[in-house]
Amino acid sequence: MTKPNKWQSILSSANDVFLNCGYEKTKMDDIAVGAGVGKGTIYQYVDSKEELFVQMIKTNVSYVSDVLMEAIEESHSIEAFFDRLLHKTLFMLNKHGEKISFVIYEDLSRISNQLQEWMAENQEKDMQRLSTMLQHFMDQNDIRDVQPEVAAWLIQDVLRLGIYFQVFRKQDNIEELMRGEIDILLKGLK
Amino acid sequence: MTKPNKWQSILSSANDVFLNCGYEKTKMDDIAVGAGVGKGTIYQYVDSKEELFVQMIKTNVSYVSDVLMEAIEESHSIEAFFDRLLHKTLFMLNKHGEKISFVIYEDLSRISNQLQEWMAENQEKDMQRLSTMLQHFMDQNDIRDVQPEVAAWLIQDVLRLGIYFQVFRKQDNIEELMRGEIDILLKGLK
Amino acid sequence: MTKPNKWQSILSSANDVFLNCGYEKTKMDDIAVGAGVGKGTIYQYVDSKEELFVQMIKTNVSYVSDVLMEAIEESHSIEAFFDRLLHKTLFMLNKHGEKISFVIYEDLSRISNQLQEWMAENQEKDMQRLSTMLQHFMDQNDIRDVQPEVAAWLIQDVLRLGIYFQVFRKQDNIEELMRGEIDILLKGLK
Amino acid sequence: MTKPNKWQSILSSANDVFLNCGYEKTKMDDIAVGAGVGKGTIYQYVDSKEELFVQMIKTNVSYVSDVLMEAIEESHSIEAFFDRLLHKTLFMLNKHGEKISFVIYEDLSRISNQLQEWMAENQEKDMQRLSTMLQHFMDQNDIRDVQPEVAAWLIQDVLRLGIYFQVFRKQDNIEELMRGEIDILLKGLK
DNA sequence: TATGAATGAGATTTCATTCAT
DNA sequence: TATGAATGAAATCTCATTCAT
């Protein structure tokens, strides 16, 4: 087995075990067994359990950011944006499944300060890009004037809802639920 | 010191330490010191660290449920409901502050299966009550026909937003943001 | 078993095991077993293996310093001094046996910088006191003019010789050898 | 790079690293890097870390023995012997510097029993040769009757003093100190 | 012959829980 | 009832050695 394959095995195993057991309950032994390598091998690639966790989270976070960014780039109206967001989210949930839940439902500040800062910066960037897009739509009268910060938060909530009902509630009508949320966000409850 | 006072001290200390350090990093020693009692004394009231954690979470969860329930009970229109939700949430955030964040941003299933089930039931009850209320408003044509599950999720998002921007982002325009979200939920982005 | 007894057991066991195995080869498990306590108990008294080692060495070093100091205090001539040094050294070798060898024949700088500094200061103090005494004897024409530093070194060599031939060579004519060395130091080889 | 050069690089690197870090703290990795060879290459020349250490020590020990032996061979009086000892020791200290301190100030028995035996034999041979020389001087009335064992120990102490004050105390008046010690050994303190 | 990625036994240290006082 | 000293299972990480290339 060549070098990149080992690292991929380790990262993939780390993903599974950290996700199922949480950071503290995860044992390096389990990750090693899951990856089919010796315990010491992991330490050829990272210096500590914490660093391995950070590597894993960074990979997964980028999946979520990518969905948002790709949806923004190609969209010229809010409807088109939501449409792409919907499809890309469903695709990502299908592909990366549960991996994402860690990113959304865990307070990572207690695991690594460095990671928390990185996450905050990342989140800030996503917020900025969403806000820019929303401001653009407001200038074009595509949507009415609202606080971009709040609108951005609600757009991210479409992702949150998808993850929550798929990963934690195990429901299978995710698309329907997301369409329902988008509908309310566009037209309101009244 | 009489018995009830000791238990209150322990619970209060547990609150502080679990919140600051997370479940795994919290040491029984620290809780004992914070409560001003001997380590062994804690085991007069609970059988394990896990049980102490469960006791603490249950207390805090009820704050959140209470806000929702009180807002439901007194409201005869969606606007009145949101209005009460806003005020009660702000009051709770002020009073119980960060305690709530644990309930929202920690995956409790890894700490205790029993707790997770309890949380799921609780959440289900909240959802049911919100759905019933929303169905009532739909029957009265106070709001248009939407999926109650999704609407309930979005209503809870008003709480989520408040907690996130207060506890994690330390912003001080929480009321404004919540009003903005409620406005979007009522009238939509268009 | 009361608290001071446990600590004495631990210190005594540490003495034995560190002496027989050396710092690195010594396992905390062995010390615990030797002391008849649990491994964790050791960490109630010291924070680390290194600190335990430092505590042990400091105790033993003081035995050696004490021999020198007591011999100095009571002596008014070089012969009287050597006489007392001889007897006190033999007594100490009898009582504390091999414990002392560590102090003389190990480069402690690699185990703990803090300890090395402490040892250097200690050594400096011993040297100072010996030099003062020797200067006094020189002023009184009890001995001829020599470099106090060298004479102090040679006096300490009486201790070194005793430890070497007893601990490492296991000879039993230690007193005779020490008397021989003192004789040469006083009268010279010629 | 040809074979003998590799072995010389390894031995030289082992010297540096063992000396600076001590046996246990020395890593085979560091020696390999220092020698500019792969880690596995070292195992072409020795079977284990211990064997590499033994090889290194044996080389260094011979420097010390050589000084004694060369001083013995050419000397026909105790003064001539000490004179040569002085010059050869200073030369050796200059050339091999700190390497020797390991031989004097480390308890090698804990690293390798085989090595300790070898050292003891070596030491015994040195002692024998010194004793023979001293006996010869006593027969010729060049020096008075003393225990040869003790006199031999004190002669070796001239080397010890040189190493101690140069390597550990970093003093630069080594020659003066050694002359002072030789003077006391010859004429005594009285 | 030369390499260095891979290995896993074994080290130190932590901390929830117990129990003698 | 209240205590905290004592415990030991279990965690992370190291590094001498091997072996496929």
TrEMBL record, chains A, B, C, D:
Write down the DNA-binding region ranges: 27-46
The segment(s) forming the HTH tetR-type domain are: 4-64
Q: Which InterPro entries match?
A: Homeodomain-like_sf, HTH-type_TetR-like_transc_reg, HTH_TetR, Tet_transcr_reg_TetR-rel_C_sf
Name the coiled-coil region(s).
108-140
- ATP-binding listed as a keyword: no
Keyword entries, A-Z: Coiled coil, DNA-binding
- Pfam families referenced in this protein's UniProt entry, alphabetically: TetR_N
**Name the record gives this protein:** TetR/AcrR family transcriptional regulator
Organism for this UniProt entry: Lentibacillus halophilus
